Amino acid sequence: MTECIFCKIIDQEIPSYKVYEDDKVYAFLDITQVTKGHTLLVPKEHVTDIFEYEPALAGEVFARVPLVARALEKAFPEMQGLNIINNNKELAYQSVFHSHIHLIPRYEETDDFSIHFGNNQGKYTAEEMQEIADKIRQQEEA
Ligand code: 5GP
Ligand code: ZN
């Protein structure tokens, strides 16, 4: 029997507030409701994180993101924006190891969500930037 909490939610062993379901994905309200309507979209197939996805499954899951996004927008016309977050591994704040996408509606600057994007422009020379890009590109081609 699975010990994964999201597999249990998908299998209805643990109750959840369902937002959307089809044969590939399940979407439900995050228990913490960072903001009203905060939703988690998960593949029904158990994958731990982004590194485990087959392309087909990734396509199926990510194709549903705009669908849920539009449903949130229609449900809450007062919504002013939407953050889409996917945490991978503990350092990057993943706490449930069944891959999931957070959809976090934004209502105002002072709502209970924040994110910090540091600006390290100037930290790398043009040559170093090129080296970084080349290194990543070479892995994709491998
Ligand atoms: P992570 O930190 O892995 O990106 O996100 C995991 C999310 O799962 C958290 O936002 C947390 O509130 C949510 N969560 C954990 N356990 C449950 C649960 O039993 N039910 C629901 N609906 N959400 C949960
Ligand atoms: Zn699972």
Describe this structure in words.
It is built from 4 helices and 5 strands. The chain has helices at residues 5-10, 55-63, 65-75, 126-141, and strands spanning 18-21, 25-29, 39-43, 81-85, 101-106. The chain is globular and about 50 Å long. The longest helix has 16 residues, at 126-141. It has one domain (5-141): HIT-like (HIT family, subunit A, 2-Layer Sandwich). The model has no long low-confidence stretch (mean pLDDT 96). The protein has 142 residues and is an alpha+beta fold. A 5-stranded antiparallel beta sheet has the order 1-2-3-5-4, covered by helices on one side. A hairpin with a 3-residue loop joins strand 1 and strand 2 (25-29). The termini are far apart. Guanosine-5'-monophosphate binds at residues 5, 14, 16, 28-32, 87, 93-96. This is HIT family protein. Pfam families: HIT (PF01230). GO terms for molecular function: catalytic activity. The active site is at 100 (tele-amp-histidine intermediate).
